[in-house]
Prior knowledge:
- Helix 1 (3-17) crosses helix 2.
- This protein has helices at residues 3-17, 37-51, 68-80.
- The protein is mainly α.
Amino acid sequence: MEQPEIADAVREVVREIAPDISELEERTSLNSLGLDSLASVELTLRLEDRFGVVFEDDELAFEHFESVASIVDLLSTKTAA
């Protein structure tokens, strides 16, 4: 899957969790948009399900889930293998 497709899918999952988010730029902090810790857990579970991956403990660091761009980078690595 190419990065633009991954980004679109990530945006879709974020909007499923937080439908009130209207603008979702690649580098915008998800935390600043109102995603709390519970929503972050839901996001990781849905992404694992959607992409057929399992995030390792060291991959669950904030910097990997800070923005759409950081999630795309992580998923690009995981889905390329």
